[in-house]
Design a protein that fits this description.
The complex is a heterodimer. By secondary structure, chain A is an alpha/beta fold. Chain A is built from ten helices and seven strands. The N and C termini of chain A lie far apart (40 Å). By secondary structure, chain B is of the alpha/beta class. Chain B is globular and about 55 Å long. The chains are: A alpha/beta, B alpha/beta.
């Protein structure tokens, strides 16, 4: 029966997170391109969600009543594909094909190219709107599923996010859509504060959302935040997770240049060592 | 074709009629508007089927995404706005969220107030780029119906495919060309008048103008064929090539720039297969206010303009 795996212990979730981080750096190294920084920052959110919250069935990815995970920050494919593979949607061996000619694992997600890919994204700001369509359809058909939408904080620069943010409470979709923001503070050209200063909690509150903040790398805190987001509330919920771009690899952490850059062979070895040992 | 007796009607008036017919035929239609439903006529569908229609406010990008999400669950989604905003305001969303996924999601864009005949609102409201944008999206069917009946059937037709589509409708009331015995098919041109000296290939409001031009040419002893090429993409290659073979000269006429619209599609077919002289009637500058019929004169979208190429 399709379901969540909950309750999975924090210790087990942390093990999965380590495997994901190793996949991420290996994939980007292998492809010699891709986006490691914003993949590493999203790991705890994704693992907690897919193991303890998302009702899904990897064997039946088109199950109409499944909860949807919609990756709006589409460049985080190393994270996304690792997550889907570790959760059982496809073999982890496929990860080696990331960004190669003809692979279902394109640089940015291509809807249904591989099992579990809900949406084509990469052009930022479109996921929340897409989720509204799913959610309205679910309501029309009296299906009881939820859409979880992951956005980056740089992505919040896009106006469409706020068109959708105002529509979710308007259409009373708070019990069908939960938003997550990976607040890692860095975007393509550098630190967000220098590019376009934003204040996500105040912005979301201003659009009528209930904001839940957490340390995005404290697995227990993330798990708790997602549980809180699932609880009924008069407003739709957004989880703003404070994260570190490149988390888990010392030379990538808080380093804007690893937004979209591959490590060298030596750097890969160091990264894998740090991920296995647990960076302090 | 029997002479139509229907009164003049705007093509946009066909939109809610067609959507309701689709629902009555069991198609799982949902429709969205972006605060222009009194103009697109989408509100009439909303009054009839409130659970299947939403206004998303003045937010075209969001409307596209919501439509795509609906389509991803198996719905037949329709989204509507002015042709200046849909696709002009949300082209990337259409490309990324609708055109690319799975070879195209079932989102049908019905854009009203196409071309310059929107009238007094002026240049910003006059869409003369929409066909160029929409024909560039690989899975899309692109259709510009000439009258109410053709529009009604075209919207029903796109609602019955799983492909995405763009149907451009117009603001002014135009004379009926077809009656209910007409059978619209996506991708199939309709020869409205036989001719052997030249062929006028038109879409939308220019179809009626081309028919007037052909009548004037006949008075000069020139036999002009008139083709309603409502489907710009995929274009009816056979009809274009037959016209080139049999009449030797082509005039295309559209309420759009001469770049990227009907004329471009026709010219490509001819250039690939049967190079033939072509003259392009269209718009080559931004507009001004004026009554819709005055604007047709201002932009030289006239029967006289359609006669600019004559076989010698």
């Amino acid at each position: 029966m399709p379901t969540t795996l909950a309750p999975v212990s924090v210790a087990e979730l942390k093990d999965v997170a380590k495997r994901l981080r190793a996949h991420i750096v290996e994939m980007v190294y292998q492809a010699q391109s891709g986006h490691p920084g914003g993949s590493l920052s999203a790991v705890e959110l994704g693992v907690s969600l897919f193991w303890n919250h998302l009702r899904c069935d990897p064997a039946d990815p088109g199950w109409p009543d499944r909860d949807r995970f919609i990756l709006s920050k589409g460049h985080a494919t190393p994270f996304y594909y690792s997550l889907l593979a570790e959760r059982g949607y496809f073999s982890t061996e496929l990860l080696a094909k990331f960004r190669t000619l003809g692979s279902p694992l394109q640089g940015h997600p291509s809807m249904s190219a591989a099992p579990g890919i809900e949406m084509s994204s990469g052009s930022l700001g479109q996921g929340l709107s897409f989720a509204i369509g799913h959610a309205l359809s679910g309501r029309l058909d009296r299906r009881d599923f939820r859409c979880w939408v992951m956005m980056g904080d740089g992505e919040l620069n896009e106006g469409q996010v706020w068109e959708a943010a105002m529509a979710v409470p308007h259409f009373d979709l708070g019990d069908r859509i939960i938003a997550m923001v990976d607040r890692n503070g860095i975007q393509n050209d550098g630190f967000g504060d220098n590019i376009m200063k934003i204040h996500p909690p105040e912005m979301w509150r201003g659009f009528g959302w209930h904001v839940i903040e957490c340390d995005g790398h404290d697995m227990a805190a993330v798990d708790q935040a997602l549980s809180e987001a699932e609880r009924p509330h008069e407003k739709p919920r957004v989880v703003v997770a404070y994260t570190v771009k490149g988390k888990g690899v010392s030379y990538m952490e808080n380093n804007p240049s690893f937004h979209g850059k591959a490590p060298t062979k030596d750097q890969l070895a160091q990264a894998l060592e740090e991920i296995a040992g647990g960076l302090k | 074709m029997t002479a139509p007796t229907a009164p003049a009607a705007a093509t946009r008036e066909a939109y809610p009629v067609a959507l309701s017919e689709l629902v009555e035929q069991g198609i799982d239609v949902v429709a969205l508007d972006a605060d222009l439903s009194a103009s697109t006529m989408g509100y009439q569908f909303g009054e009839k089927y409130p659970e299947r229609w939403h206004s998303v406010g003045i937010a075209e990008a969001n409307m596209v995404g919501i439509g795509a999400g609906y389509a991803a669950t198996g719905k037949t989604a329709f989204i509507a706005s002015f042709a200046s905003f849909l696709p002009g305001r949300c082209f990337d969303q259409i490309r990324t969220s609708v055109a690319q996924p799975k070879g195209g999601l079932n989102v049908n864009c019905v854009a009203s107030h196409g071309g310059v005949t929107v009238g007094e609102d002026g240049a910003s409201a006059q869409a003369i780029e929409d066909l160029a944008l929409m024909t560039s999206l690989i899975p899309f069917d692109v259709i510009v119906p000439a009258d109410f009946e053709s529009a009604r059937q075209a919207i029903i037709a796109v609602g019955k495919t799983t492909r995405p589509s763009y149907v451009r409708t117009g603001r002014p009331k135009v004379a009926a060309i077809y009656d209910r015995s007409f059978r619209f098919e996506i991708g199939r041109a309709n020869v409205l008048r036989p001719g052997s000296d030249v062929t006028l290939i038109a879409c939308g409001i220019l179809v009626g103008i081309a028919l007037d031009a052909a009548a004037q040419l006949a008075a000069d002893g020139i036999s002009a064929r008139v083709i309603d090429m409502a489907t710009i993409k995929p274009i009816d290659r056979d009809a274009v090539l037959a016209a080139a073979r049999e009449t030797g000269a082509i005039v295309t006429a559209e309420e759009h720039q001469t770049h990227g619209g009907l004329g471009t599609q026709v010219a490509r077919v001819l250039a690939e297969t049967l190079p033939t002289p072509v003259a392009f009637v269209g718009v080559d500058r931004y507009g001004t206010s004026g009554k819709w019929d005055e604007l047709l004169g201002y932009f030289e979208l006239t029967p006289a303009a359609c006669q600019l190429l004559r076989k010698t």
